[in-house]
């Protein structure tokens, strides 16, 4: 039984049982038909995934592993915020006529900043520190840039990663201000787990923990029946993640370098409505 499934089921049960409804409050998100997209939420959920034990992908329903990796490479490797560089349609609803989602995610990671050792963007700074000062307690990426919020269609949700080397293990904390539990919880966990795998491999570090801190973990009203059915399913054992071990430079990783072996999972829930 996959541990990621157990964590997901426990979190959903907790939100469904003890969560607070937004009914009666003013909410930003809407359904496609203009109805306010209300949620039940819990504040401050913390989920810990030990990446040395298993790869944290949901088996209750398929997570589109390739599309999730494609998006994390779009943000962290291509540093793009234009959907022309993305191979899925997941950001289409938030892009302008030029295909841009504004100064979000990848755009922020491409900005260069000055440090005592010279100019780096935030990704290159992490790679530099993991190589030269792995025991630094300052290895942080932050995409939540108040200067540029007015030029983003959606403010970054998964907005910060803190990397921490302990012994020979690479650990990380993913900070997320807002989480659509059905659509993107495992999507985000899978992609940041892959990122830790890539950074560990290129720095000859072992896999540690991914700690996912979610400030507002919510289930949208139209997702409640879908989640209630999903968490009654029986999970499968976790699949095995295989990564091309020859890749030693973060910028050389491609989609085909990642393979999931024995990914058994429940049937997909088709046409999940996504709140805008
Ligand atoms: N309400 C909302 N929830 C989100 O999760 C979300 C947003 N908005 N806005 C921006 C991005 C876009 N993200 C998305 C949007 C859609 C899927 C999605 O449709 N996932 C499908 C599979 C997609 C595929 O196969 O290509 C799924 O079943 O999980 C995933 C992430 C995450 N984000
Ligand atoms: O990577 C992502 C991107 C977006 N989300 C979700 C979380 C919220 O449901 C919406 C954003 O709405 P806000 O009003 O800006 O919080 O998108 C996600 O879970 N993961």
CATH H level, superfamily name: Thymidylate synthase/dCMP hydroxymethylase domain
State the end-to-end distance. Answer: 34 Å
Annotated CATH topology: Thymidylate Synthase, Chain A
Cα gyration radius (Å): 19 Å
**Ligand identities:** 5,10-methenyl-6,7,8-trihydrofolic acid, ligand LAUPNLSC
Tell me what the CATH architecture is.
2-Layer Sandwich
Query: Counting H and I runs of at least 4 residues, what is the number of helices?
Result: 6
Give the structural class: alpha+beta
Q: What number of structural domains do the residues give?
A: 1
Helix % is 25-40%
In sequence order, what are the helices and strands, one letter per element?
HEEHHEEHEEEHEHEE
The number of E-state strands comes to: 10
- What proportion strand? 25-35%
Mean pLDDT across the residues is 98
**Outline:** globular
Q: Biggest β-sheet: count, sense, barrel?
A: 6 strands, mixed
Low confidence ranges: none
What would CATH call the class?
Alpha Beta
Catalytic activity: dUMP + (6R)-5,10-methylene-5,6,7,8-tetrahydrofolate = 7,8-dihydrofolate + dTMP
Protein name: Thymidylate synthase
Keywords: Cytoplasm, Methyltransferase, Nucleotide biosynthesis, Transferase
EC number: 2.1.1.45
Using brief descriptors, characterize the structure shown.
276 residues; alpha+beta; Thymidylate Synthase, Chain A; 6-stranded mixed beta sheet; two-stranded antiparallel sheet; 6 helices; binds 5,10-methenyl-6,7,8-trihydrofolic acid; binds the ligand O=c1ccn([C@H]2C[C@H](O)[C@@H](COP(=O)(O)O)O2)c(=O)[nH]1; Thymidylate_synthase; methyltransferase; Thymidylate synthase; cytoplasm; Thymidate_synth/dCMP_Mease_dom
């Amino acid at each position: 039984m996959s541990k990621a499934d157990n964590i997901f089921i426990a979190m959903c049960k907790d939100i469904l049982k003890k969560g607070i409804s937004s009914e009666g409050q003013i909410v930003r998100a809407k359904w496609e038909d203009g109805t306010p997209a209300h949620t039940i939420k819990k504040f401050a959920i913390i989920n810990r995934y030990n990446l040395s034990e298993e790869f944290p992908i949901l088996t209750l329903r398929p997570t589109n592993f390739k599309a999730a990796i494609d998006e994390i490479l779009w943000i962290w490797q291509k540093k793009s915020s234009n959907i022309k560089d993305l191979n899925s349609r997941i950001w289409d609803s938030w892009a302008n006529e030029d295909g841009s989602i504004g100064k979000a995610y990848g755009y922020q990671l491409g900005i260069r900043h000055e440090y005592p050792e010279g100019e780096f963007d935030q990704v290159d700074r992490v790679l530099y520190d993991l190589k030269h000062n792995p025991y630094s307690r300052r290895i942080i990426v932050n995409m939540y840039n108040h200067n540029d919020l007015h030029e983003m269609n959606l403010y970054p949700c998964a907005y910060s990663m803190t990397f921490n080397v302990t012994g020979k293990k690479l650990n990380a904390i993913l900070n997320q201000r807002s989480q659509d539990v059905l659509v993107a919880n495992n999507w985000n966990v899978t992609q940041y787990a892959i990122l830790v795998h890539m950074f560990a491999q290129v720095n000859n570090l072992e896999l540690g923990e991914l700690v996912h801190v979610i400030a507002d973990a919510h289930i949208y009203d139209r997702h409640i029946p879908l989640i209630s059915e999903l968490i009654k399913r029986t999970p499968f054992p976790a699949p095995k993640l295989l990564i091309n071990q020859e890749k030693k430079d973060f910028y050389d990783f491609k989609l085909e370098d990642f393979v999931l072996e024995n990914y058994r999972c429940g049937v997909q829930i088709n046409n999940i409505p996504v709140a805008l």
